[in-house]
Amino acid sequence: MNILLIEDDQSAAMGISLVLKAGSNQVYHAATGYEGLDLANQNSYHLIVLDINLPDISGYDVLKTLRRSGDATPVIVLSGLGSVQDKVRGLELGADDYLAKPFLKEELTARVEAVIRRSQPAMTGSVVKIGDLCILSDVKSVMINGVNLHLTPREFDIVELLARRIGTPVSKASILTYLYSGMCPPQDKIVDVYICKIRRKMEAVSPQDAYISTMRGDGYVLAAPRHLSLARAA
Question: Taking a C-beta distance cutoff of 8 angstroms, is the pair 210, 222 a contact?
């Protein structure tokens, strides 16, 4: 993805760029608000990461100008101003998310993924097969051997997120942000509760298969059970 970063602090810009580039993104940097607007007018981006405290015009003015011009590129606002009023102002001006400084790199990564996901059109007719597990995004259904698991909306969202990053551990923080981005998330123990319920529904249909594994300290990973993977390769 192409990401435009508008941040005047060079040290912060370098750190944020490294985080964003770790996701195989191309990052373009602007050190002022006007420079950022020029780049936004010249090129198309999948996402804009925008600092509020800029040396020429405020990030709020940049955001206001973008939206008035009809630019609908998703925007994540970064700011040392973390009050509710500041967040509300940013969101009212058209920001898709608001992240108060300081923040962990994992949180920024999760927010970026959540904003991009929300900005993308629904995948009509999309079907993902993992072993005997079948995920149908258009009807938000998950089946094993043709049997519907009857997942709740949040349970389906978790399975879909894990499927998007199949074979790679997804942290609880990433799952919480995916589920509750823009809202105050509950404690991360709720993720364990959701995973437990999903596993029970899977085991009720296919008790010998474990599709979701716990990677201690890293989160959860979705993959075909080992014996199924070996069978497909045989």
Answer: no
Q: How many whole angstroms separate alpha carbon 35 and alpha carbon 6?
A: 8
Contact between 210 and 224 under an 8 Å Cβ cutoff? The reply is no
- Separation of alpha carbons 40 and 71, rounded Å: 9
Q: Return the axis-axis angle of helices 153-164 and 172-180, rounded to nearest 10°.
A: 130
**Number of domains present in the structure of the chain:** 2
How far apart CA 167 and CA 213 sit, in angstroms, is 10
DSSP alpha helix (H) spans, 71-142: 84-92, 105-119
Is the pTM value of this prediction over 0.85? no
- Quickly count: other Cβ atoms within 10 Å of residue 210's Cβ: 14
User: Residue 226: its pLDDT value, please?
Assistant: 57
Calculate mean pLDDT across residues 150-162: 90
What is the residue range of 223's domain?
127-233
Task: Please say which residue of 62, 85, 119 terminates a domain.
Answer: 119
Long-range contacts of 115-122 (CB under 8 A, 24+ apart): 115/47, 115/74, 115/76, 115/181, 116/1, 116/46, 116/47, 116/74, 117/178, 118/74, 118/181, 119/46, 119/47, 119/74
